[in-house]
Every structure is written in structure tokens, then in C-alpha cells.
Design brief:
The chain is 41% helix and 22% strand. The chain is an alpha/beta fold. It has two domains: 2-200, Class I glutamine amidotransferase (GATase) domain (Rossmann fold, 3-Layer(aba) Sandwich), CATH 3.40.50; 217-290, no CATH class. A hairpin with a 2-residue loop joins strand 11 (245-248) and strand 12 (251-254). Helix 7 (196-216) packs across helix 11 (276-290) and helix 8 packs across helix 11 (276-290).
């Protein structure tokens, strides 16, 4: 069972300076407690300075138990998660955090029986959906937890552009209306416990069923889905007509797709940035083109 500690931002803001949060973080763990600090949501040049400050902070909060603090690195992240007791995702830019995690495929499998803490962006990426207070829109997280996240709730973050009641209503109406909208104020945290293998199994099962459904109703797909997808591709082609070479192994060949689908947007492939439904539709469209 994995324990998740979700913080609305600024864990040191409470009157106790975050002592209750730290006590929950290390509760029930054997010494020495290994804590992995993940700063992927922040610019890399700031990591060492933030890490040194965290050493001082945890040293002042954990006086009667031995602990080891480690800074997460993309190159060894999976191994680090495997060997730690606690993974602490600090705040920053959610999309930047998710892009870096994409470089470490399979890392979430190692979360079983760990304690995972996240603050601000560290909550957003775990959620199925979250409201981006910077982009002022609902975005998709990794779906590790079945929640719609709203962090920094009630604060002056990006004021006066945030109407908290309106945003809450938008989240409630978005996607699955029965899914919990988790509103977290700064310094506030909640604890959730869940089996990571159940989450991963559910994600794969939903994707498998979507494919089976669409294949079973090929005629419906040809009538409704493929034309819509064709419009989607044509619109992308109008925006950027040039094509870009795509690597297949060590060779190069021209992609048969417009750049928005055959190439990359920054460092992240457009296909990976699609929602699961769009991925299914796009995959079926390309299979149809090959026939």
C-alpha cells in the first residue's frame, strides 16, 4: 500500500512550521529513513540551493531519528525511488515535472509500499485532472490518484485572475462528475492510501477496453471517428505545412504525417501529449491509412 501526502503548497506555512507534516511523512518508517527530494518541477540550476535548504529544514524537524536526504536525478531516478522510503515532490511547474518524469518510464511501478508526498505541482501531476493557476485552464495529470486537484485554494495566487468558486464549479463539471474535487489551502495536507498496482491496472484496462470498443464498431468509427480525426489532422497541417524527419532507430526517413504529429513540440512528442481518447483515435486513423 502506498501512502500519499498531498499538500496545497507552502508546507511551512502552518503555525508549527510544518512539524505535523514532517511527522506524518516519517511515521512508521524504520531508521535510517531515506528521503528522496524531487525538484524536477524547478529549474535545474536551483536544485542544489533548494536541497541544501531542505537539509537544514528537515534537520530542525527530525531530531530524534536518523535520516538520509538524497537529491533526485533524472539519470538514476528509477533506482533512487526503488531504494528510498519517501519520495517528496516539491512544487514548481507541473508540466515541466511531467516532462522530466517521461524520461524515466516505469518509475511509478516502484512506488508500491512507499510514502509519496507532493506539494502544489507535486499534487497536480498525481491527479487525474488539475486546474493550472498559471495557464487558467483544466489540465490532465498522470491519473495516479482519482482526484481533480485545486491547490493554493483561497490564496492570492495569481490574483485577481482566479475566481475560486468558479474554478471549483468548472472542475466539478469536467470529465467524471463523481470524481472528488480536492481543494487544498496552502499549508493544508490530506493523506490517501492506495495500491499502485491497482491504479496501473485500471489505466491499462480502460485503454484496452477503449480499443476493443472502437474495433468492434469499425463502421461507426469510419462514419464518425475517422472523418473527425481527418479534420483534426488537416487543421494541424494548415498551421504548419512543412514536414520534419523522424528517427527510426539509427536511420532517417520523411514522416508521412504533418509536423504537429510526426515531429515534436519542444521535447515532448505530440502523441504523448494527447489525451488517452485522442491516442486511440489517432492510432486507429494511422492503421486505416496503412490499409
Amino acid at each position: 500500500m502506498t501512502k500519499y501526502i498531498l499538500i496545497g503548497g507552502y508546507p511551512t506555512k502552518p503555525d508549527d512550521g510544518g512539524k505535523t507534516f514532517v511527522d506524518e511523512l516519517i511515521d512508521g518508517l524504520d531508521q535510517p529513513i531515506r528521503i528522496l527530494i524531487c525538484l524536477f518541477a524547478r529549474p535545474e540550476e536551483t536544485w542544489q540551493e533548494v536541497f541544501e535548504n531542505d537539509k537544514i529544514y528537515f534537520g530542525s524537524m527530525i531530531r530524534d531519528r536518523k535520516f538520509i536526504l538524497e537529491l533526485a536525478k533524472s539519470s538514476t531516478f528509477i533506482e533512487q525511488v526503488r531504494n528510498t522510503d519517501v519520495v517528496y515532490f516539491r512544487g514548481g511547474r507541473t508540466k515541466q515535472l511531467m516532462r522530466r518524469l517521461e524520461e524515466c518510464p516505469g518509475w511509478e511501478v516502484e512506488l508500491e509500499d512507499k510514502t509519496v508526498a507532493g506539494t502544489s505541482a507535486g499534487v497536480n501531476f498525481l491527479a487525474t485532472y488539475y486546474y493550472s493557476l498559471d495557464d487558467l485552464e483544466i489540465c490532465q495529470g498522470l491519473g495516479i490518484l482519482p482526484i481533480k486537484a485545486l491547490v493554493h485554494y483561497g490564496s492570492d495566487y495569481n490574483a485577481p485572475n482566479i475566481d475560486w468558486e468558479k474554478v471549483t464549479l468548472e472542475l466539478e463539471e469536467y470529465g467524471d462528475k463523481d470524481m472528488e474535487v480536492l481543494k487544498l489551502a496552502e499549508g493544508e495536507f490530506v493523506v490517501r492510501e492506495q495500491y499502485i498496482w491497482k491504479i496501473l491496472l485500471a489505466q491499462r484496462l480502460r485503454f484496452f477496453l477503449a480499443i476493443k470498443f472502437l474495433r468492434s464498431y469499425e463502421t461507426i468509427g469510419q462514419i464518425f471517428i475517422f472523418p473527425i480525426t481527418g479534420i483534426f489532422l488537416e487543421e494541424d497541417a494548415k498551421v504548419r505545412k512543412r514536414r520534419k524527419p523522424v528517427r527510426y532507430g539509427n536511420s532517417k526517413r520523411k514522416s508521412t504525417l504533418p509536423l504537429p504529429l510526426g515531429g515534436c513540440c519542444g521535447r515532448r512528442p505530440i502523441l504523448q501529449s494527447m489525451t488517452p481518447v485522442k491516442r486511440v483515435i489517432f492510432s486507429l486513423y494511422t492503421l486505416r491509412k496503412k490499409k
